[in-house]
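STRUCTURE REQUEST FORM
Protein name: RNA-binding protein
Source organism: Ramlibacter cellulosilyticus
Requested output: structure tokens
Priority: standard
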Amino acid sequence: MTSKIYVGNLPYSVTDSILESNFAEFGGVSSAKLVMDRETGRSKGFGFVEMPSAEEAQAAIKGLHGRSVDGRSITVNLARPREEGRGSGGYGAQGFKASHRAGVGYGNDGFGGGRS
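Status: completed
Returned output:
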């Protein structure tokens, strides 16, 4: 089973191939991908690397966490699973909700017009 690693505080000059080559020092790399901003196409300064074994992943974490890359101390640790339902609104398991807070919006608690 592969191990997914989070890599943060990366300088914007780092590319997918540079990220992959840094981790290849510690073993095989299944994938190395930076997260890009949709609007600008520029790196968001973090990414994910997948390595084929937990032992290789731990060696990479130990060897790279805190290392200086272009003057920035990078963060390297095991990636956490994505949390479900992180948005403040939208369509979820309970249907569409504009907000999870009571008393927010038009017509509640005196907001939104109408005469009392």
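Reviewer notes: Strands lie at 3-8, 31-36, 43-51, 68-69, 72-73, 75-78, 90-92, 95-97. The mean pLDDT is 84.
Form closed.
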